[in-house]
Amino acid sequence: MDITKFVENSLGQWRSQRSSHNLALTYFEQVTSTIDIVPLAKDDSKVIDLCKSNEIDPQMVSHPFRMSWEGESDWDEGETFEGTTILVPVPEPDNPQAGRLLRDQGYAETIPAIGKYHFSEDGTFVLLTAYDRAAAEEKIWFVNPNLRMRVSLIKTSGGSGVLTASFSSEIRS
């Protein structure tokens, strides 16, 4: 697996069911959402802006995409949430199995972020992102072309404690 294949496999609309444990506040949450992943051109103005703000040559990027989501949680019954983010993979020139992932909005904190990704031997996408007050570790793998799994950990900024652990199953619509 490399970033090209991973992004191509991820494009489309996904129905997601996420179970999340907030270990710090000791609550359990169920979230259902719809996730749309669409490709962006390398010369899209938002891709160029994200590259410039991170001092990255836009020619170095591979398969940028936008991810949008909307859903609801059993924790805030009746309340819905939505969001969108631009993601720009920047593979290492000498290693197609690893690189950086630029985001205009992060996962653990809603600030721009740069994560480091790699693919494990079994093809799992592993993303590690350090934020101001936390760190995130995400793993995504495909069971088949229309079913993918995602595990996310939100850790303390030093990485020594786990604040939130979640598991998602995502089915292509």
In total, the number of domains comes to 1
Major sheet characteristics: 10 strands, antiparallel, barrel
Helix segment tally: 2
Provide the CATH topology. Answer: Lipocalin
Assign the CATH architecture: Beta Barrel
Low-confidence parts:
none
Shape descriptor reads: globular
Give the total of beta strands: 10
Please give the alpha-carbon distance between the first and last residues: 23 Å
Structural class: mainly beta
Describe the structure.
The chain has a single domain, classed as Lipocalin, CATH 2.40.128. The protein has 2 helices and 10 strands, in the order H-E-E-H-E-E-E-E-E-E-E-E. The protein has helices at 3-10, 45-53, and strands at residues 12-22, 27-39, 65-73, 80-92, 95-103, 113-119, 125-130, 134-144, 147-156, 162-172. A 10-stranded antiparallel barrel has the order 1-2-3-4-5-6-7-8-9-10. Strand 6 (113-119) and strand 7 (125-130) form a beta hairpin. The longest helix is centred in the first third of the chain and has 9 residues, at 45-53.
Short précis:
The protein has 173 residues and is mainly β. Helices cover 10% and strands 58% of the residues. It is built from two helices and ten strands.
Keywords:
173 residues; globular; ten-stranded antiparallel barrel; mainly beta
Topology readout:
Layout: H1 3-10, E1 12-22, E2 27-39, H2 45-53, E3 65-73, E4 80-92, E5 95-103, E6 113-119, E7 125-130, E8 134-144, E9 147-156, E10 162-172
Antiparallel strand pairs: 1-2, 1-10, 2-3, 3-4, 4-5, 5-6, 6-7, 7-8, 8-9, 9-10
